[in-house]
What does this fold into?
Amino acid sequence: MKQKSILSLDNHFSFSGLSTFKTCKEQFKIVYIDGLRKEQESIEAYMGKCVHETLEWLYNPQNRAKPYITFDRICRTYDEIWVENWHDKIHIPNYRCTTDELYTTGKRCLSNYYNKYGPIFSEKVVETELLLEFTIDGKYLFKGVIDRLDQPSKGKFVIHDYKTGKRTKMQKAAQKDLQLAMYQIAIEQHFEQVDEVVLKWHYLRKGIEVCVKHSESDILNIKKQLVEKVDEIIITSNNLSNFYPKESRLCDWCFLWEECSAKSGSNPAMKAK
Ligand code: SF4
It folds into this structure.
């Protein structure tokens, strides 16, 4: 008898879910089917969250109305966020860096951003950390959170995504990227007049920006790819044994070792201090 899929088209799929499925199916099962969330996180992820939160603060309505903002003020906010949110489940995977180094990298990200855009932050922001849901073909459900959405003029939108990691995507790779293209599809469904959408990646460590504008045929092709990925996940969920572990260097940043069938013990990363 054919087993019923655990996942169906009633589920909302996110970009992080789709990419986790690609990197390790067992991790996908533990997080997105079993619903397990761990408090542990890497120091890189923690720094990324602090930088994102600082930039969210920077674009709040009060700050956007100010004549200027000093870099010292931004640093103070970053420090407050860093200290207030610090917890004892932050780890340093692979002994690659120290807490001080990552904290300083976060500041460098903000400094690169400030040098490019400061001291006035009066952009026409629609929303920061904007959660959007959308459909493809009226039946495939997706959701995602946009770091920042601007509307510089009627019908024109800019989707901003902040990256604090080492890797940068060049123009050609950004053109094929699904994450921000998904957000474009969401914007086109949620706003009445959408004439132009610019996708903008901010690679904050290096102060590099990459922009992409998709044609209608690009978006059609991306929709097709998203549908294929969801179909593959649903078919895979016919049988839980399909969710096998795929070990890689990314295991160092995974805190599901106790649950993973390929590992024993817990992730050996040392606690950050
Ligand atoms: S430890 Fe590695 S193989 Fe196991 S779930 Fe995490 S990423 Fe997958």
In short: The pocket of iron/sulfur cluster is lined by residues 24, 26-27, 245-247, 250-251, 254, 256-257, 260, 262-263 (CB under 6 Å). The mean pLDDT is 94.
